[in-house]
Amino acid sequence: MKYFINDDIALSRPLEGLAASYIIPFADWLVDRGYGLVSMRNQVLMAAGFSKWLGHKGIELSDISGDHPRRYLLDRAQRPKLGDAAALRHLLAFLRSQNAIAEEIEADHNPSLVEQHVQAYELYLRDARALARETIINYRPVVRDFLNYRFGDGAVSLAQLRAVDVTDFVQKAISRLNMRRAKIITTALRSFLSYARYRGDITSDLAAAVPIVA
């Protein structure tokens, strides 16, 4: 028996756990943001598994911390693959937008070097640009993924960024996405690179190196 999430996604088992009622709206949220079918299906599967895990562990939604996705990935029998952590970040962002979990649920008292840059950029968008929370939620993971792609766990020096870093990241990031999501990624990246130039972290106009998708 199949359990349909929408016209394109069906699960082999019914939804379980404390976040079960949010999975179908989460799928709709992903559709609205232009994710392709493969990416959306993987994210829904991750969300369903995470919800079931929360139930087994007796963890209330109100008690979720930023460490729970990491613990879930470690507990799974499957080895984590590229995109799993991002899927859970997207789920938490959606749950925050529904006021299902605390606004600062992913706050980290010892943020990584990448996360420090992401947080500074987020403050700029919120305080200096007064952008809507929805826009910030869309931009933040793009910047995080870009910096992780370029610097990994090492030192983050924006001055070392080159145009080839930008084009390589965009080409890899949009290869499996539909046009709407691809445009979100390129818009977010241009915004971040313009911000970095405004701060003096980079001197060249790397925002101009972001490929145009059409």
What does this 3D model show about the protein?
It is a single chain. This protein is an all-alpha fold and 214 residues long. It has 2 domains: 3-98; 113-209, Orthogonal Bundle (DNA polymerase, domain 1). It has 8 helices and 2 strands. It has a two-stranded antiparallel sheet. The model has no long low-confidence stretch (mean pLDDT 86).
Topology:
Blueprint lengths: L2 E2 L5 E2 L8 H13 L4 H21 L10 H8 L8 H14 L15 H16 L4 H19 L11 H11 L5 H21 L15
Antiparallel strand pairs: 1-2
Please estimate the helix content.
55-70%
Tell me the Rg in angstroms: 18 Å
> Strand order of the main beta sheet, please?
1-2
Relevant CATH superfamily of the largest domain: Tyrosine recombinase, N-terminal domain
Name of the CATH architecture of the largest domain: Orthogonal Bundle
Total separate domains: 2
Query: What is the number of E strands?
Result: 2
Q: Class by helix and strand content? A: mainly alpha
Compute the average pLDDT: 86
Report the portion of residues in β strands.
under 5%
The arrangement of helices and strands along the chain is EEHHHHHHHH
Count of helices? 8
Q: Give the biggest sheet.
A: 2 strands, antiparallel
The CATH class of the largest domain is identified as Mainly Alpha
Distance, first to last CA: 40 Å
Which blocks of ≥5 consecutive residues have pLDDT under 50? none
The name of the CATH topology of the largest domain is: DNA polymerase, domain 1
Q: State the shape.
A: globular
